[in-house]
C-alpha cells in the first residue's frame, strides 16, 4: 500500500481520535508518524520512547500503567494532559509535556498497540522489519554504543509481539515504511 492510500483511508479520523503506530525497533514508525503529522491537520505525536523508564521498562506493567494513566485515559475523557518525558542521557524523567485536548493523537513506538491500549485506539498501524535491518537502522540513527542494549531489546520485543499479537490486531500492515515515504 502506498502512503497516499493510507492517508486517504485516514480521512475519517477526527479530533480526539488516536492513531497508534507499532512494530519492531527500526521499522520506520517515527518516519511514518512525522509524515502523518505533516499531512493530518491538528495532529500531534506522542512517542512511546519518551515514556519508557530506561531499557528495562519497555515491556513492563509500569510502562503500561504510565501510558494508560498519563496519556490514554485523559485522551478518552477529552482532557488536557501532561506526561513525563524520559531523558535517555540522564537516565531519568526530567520534564513533562503538556498536550491540549481535541487533537488527533499519533502514539508511535514499540508497544503503542499494546493489547491493554487497544480499547483506546481508533486506528492501529503495524510496520514490520527484520531484526537485521531494524538493528542497522537504529544503530545508524542512535550510534553503536547501544548495540548490546538493542540486541537485548530486540529479543524482548519479539517475545512481547508473539504474546501480544499486535500485528494481528492492526488495521493496516506494512513491511517497513510505506514506499512513497522512502
Structure description:
This protein has helices spanning 3-9, 29-39, 61-76, 131-142, 147-164, 166-169, and strands at 18-22, 43-47, 81-87, 92-99, 104-108, 123-128, 172-175. The protein is globular and about 40 Å long. The model has no long low-confidence stretch (mean pLDDT 94). It is an alpha/beta fold and 182 residues long. The two termini are 13 Å apart. Strand 3 (81-87) and strand 4 (92-99) form a beta hairpin. The strands form two sheets. Strands 2-5-1-6-7 form a five-stranded parallel sheet. A two-stranded antiparallel sheet has the order 3-4. The protein has a domain at 3-51 and 103-177: Rossmann fold. The chain contains six helices and seven strands.
What separation lies between the terminal Cα atoms? 13 Å
Structural class: alpha/beta
Radius of gyration: 15 Å
Q: What are the low-pLDDT stretches, counting only 5+ consecutive residues below 50?
A: none
Order of helices and strands, N to C? HEHEHEEEEHHHE
As laid out across the biggest beta sheet, the strand order is: 2-5-1-6-7
Please identify, by name, the CATH architecture of one domain.
3-Layer(aba) Sandwich
Q: How many strands appear in the DSSP assignment?
A: 7
Q: Summarize model confidence as the mean pLDDT.
A: 94
CATH topology of one domain: Rossmann fold
> What gross morphology would you assign?
globular
What portion of residues is helical?
Answer: 25-40%
CATH homologous superfamily name of one domain? P-loop containing nucleotide triphosphate hydrolases
- Amount of beta strand: 15-25%
Helix count equals 6
Mind telling me the CATH class of one domain? Answer: Alpha Beta
Largest sheet: 5 strands, parallel
Amino acid at each position: 500500500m502506498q502512503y497516499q492510500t493510507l492517508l486517504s483511508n485516514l480521512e475519517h479520523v477526527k479530533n480526539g481520535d488516536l492513531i497508534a503506530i507499532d512494530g519492531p525497533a527500526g521499522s520506520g514508525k517515527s518516519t511514518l508518524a512525522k509524515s502523518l503529522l505533516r499531512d493530518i491537520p491538528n495532529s500531534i505525536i506522542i512517542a512511546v520512547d519518551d515514556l519508557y523508564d530506561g531499557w528495562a521498562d519497555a515491556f513492563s506493567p509500569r510502562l503500561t500503567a504510565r501510558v494508560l494513566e498519563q496519556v490514554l485515559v485523559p485522551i478518552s475523557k477529552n482532557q488536557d494532559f501532561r506526561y513525563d518525558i524520559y531523558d535517555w542521557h540522564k537516565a531519568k524523567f526530567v520534564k513533562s509535556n503538556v498536550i491540549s485536548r481535541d487533537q488527533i493523537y499519533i502514539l508511535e513506538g514499540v508497544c503503542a498497540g499494546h493489547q491493554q491500549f487497544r480499547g483506546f485506539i481508533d486506528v492501529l498501524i503495524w510496520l514490520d522489519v527484520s531484526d537485521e535491518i531494524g538493528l542497522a537502522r537504529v544503530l545508524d540513527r542512535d550510534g553503536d554504543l547501544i548495540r548490546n542494549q538493542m540486541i537485548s531489546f530486540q529479543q524482548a520485543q519479539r517475545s512481547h509481539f508473539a504474546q501480544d499479537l499486535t500485528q494481528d490486531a492492526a488495521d493496516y500492515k506494512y513491511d517497513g515504511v510505506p514506499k512513497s515515504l522512502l
